[in-house]
Design brief:
The protein has 16 helices and twelve strands. By secondary structure, it is of the alpha/beta class. The structure holds pyridoxal-5'-phosphate.
Length: about 400
């Protein structure tokens, strides 16, 4: 047997974690085994660096009075979800009092029209997003993603050494599916975010279907519909049954106001789901907190409440857009709960700092557009605070 002190260090442990374990008497071979205990969840946390964790530990929440920087919902879970979650707390002595995971999957089936074996819940969507990259990309099979878009897939691919192609959006802010295929004709995964974070723009289902029909055999297409309820556009759920290589992903962190409850799901071919679960023996998908499951189940079917929340967002967005137009500011034509504002002559990070002096936390910029900030549409009161602050900090 080879010398354990010469074994390579596992890449999915942060150097400080590896140092700590070695100092405490573990050898390098043990480290590889320890790294797999935390599996993909740990990988997402270190490679993906979610918005709330920039340095391996969660950042403190911003202290601003008005928080419109992180694409969260301005209010908590829908009332039926809150009631269901509260009711579940008293029964949480059992791992599964009445098959709550099954109840959740049946709610997804009812709303999305997909079969039971095509649904897998997860604690949010960051985990399945990172996990899809691990499952289907490799040093030989890269990731193709858009620019700008949500970066977690790209960061995870870089972390594990899979090549990443970042393809600019079309001039009308869709994913450029033809250019995405041309960027890597042998990729493992093509990531489509629609509505796109940060632009709020839609990539039509026809474009996604084109990519699915023209991609290399075996490659997956992941359609991230985190913000779809804010847009009210046709969704890709049926692609999960029609095409074996499509993964459709959702989260409860956005319109459902459950970011801190951690719930999401994918719809995909059962073989795809099985592949994605093999890294942790189904642990992350199987062991979800009961109040979160119950809240998600009751929320998903509350169609009229979802529509009412979308209408509230549209009113707050319309109010904000009218004001921005009067100020002569250019905004990407969004269909979701976010606005990309081009400050043209000013760096977005300086504008963000100026808003902080008014106790308004706006969003960040993306390297491809350094003068453009993402603003989350909050409540009407949030957006009134935003325009008041804007009038103080901005002049053309
Ligand atoms: C497009 C997109 N996908 C996925 C996520 C991950 O969110 P969560 O892990 O809370 O579901 C986010 C979070 O902002 C997002 O914007």
């Amino acid at each position: 047997m080879s010398d354990p002190s010469l074994a390579p260090l596992p890449d999915n442990l942060l150097p400080e974690a590896a140092d700590d374990l070695l100092t405490r008497g573990y050898n390098r071979r043990d480290l590889a085994r320890i790294a797999t205990v935390f599996g993909v969840g740990a990988l997402a946390a270190t490679a993906g660096r979610p918005a709330w964790a920039s340095g391996g530990v969660p950042d403190p929440a911003p202290t601003a009075k008005t928080r419109i920087g992180a694409n969260e919902c301005w209010t908590g879970p829908l009332a039926p979800g809150q009631r269901a979650a509260a009711g579940m707390i008293a029964q949480s002595n059992r791992y599964s009092p009445h098959d709550e995971r099954g109840d959740f999957i049946r709610a997804v089936m009812a709303v999305e029209g997909v079969p039971y074996d095509h649904v897998a819940p997860w604690p949010g969507s960051s985990d399945p997003l990172s996990r899809a990259v691990i499952s289907f990309c490799s040093p030989a099979k890269g990731l193709v993603t858009a620019d700008p878009t949500f970066e977690l897939a790209g960061r995870t691919a870089e972390w594990v050494g899979a090549p990443v192609a970042r393809v600019p959006l079309t001039p009308d802010f869709r994913h450029d599916v033809k250019a995405m295929l041309a960027a890597n004709r042998d990729a493992g995964l093509y990531y489509i975010c629609t509505p796109n974070n940060p632009t709020g723009t839609i990539t039509p289902l026809e474009d996604i279907a084109w990519l699915v029909q023209n991609k290399p055999a075996g490659a997956k297409v992941l359609v991230d519909e985190a913000y779809t309820h804010f847009a009210g556009v046709p969704v890709a759920s049926s692609f999960a049954t029609k095409y074996p290589d499509v993964i459709v992903m959702r989260t409860f962190s956005k319109i459902f106001g459950m970011a801190g409850m951690r719930m999401g799901y994918i719809m995909a071919n059962p073989e795809t789901i099985k592949t994605m679960m093999r890294y942790d023996g189904g642990m992350q998908s199987g062991a979800l907190p009961l109040p979160s499951l119950a809240c998600a189940t009751a929320s998903l079917t509350a169609a009229s409440l979802i529509a009412a929340r979308r209408a509230q967002m549209e009113a707050a967005r319309g109010f904000t857009l009218d004001h921005l137009k009067r100020k002569g500011l250019t905004v990407v034509p969004t269909q979701a709960n976010m606005l990309m504002i081009d400050w043209k002559t000013k760096a977005a990070k300086d504008v963000q700092a100026a808003f902080r002096t008014q106790s308004v936390e706006i969003g960040r910029s993306w390297p491809i557009w350094p003068t453009v900030s993402r603003i989350t549409v909050g409540s009407m009161a949030d957006m009134q605070d935003f325009v008041l602050a804007l009038d103080k900090v901005w002049s053309a």
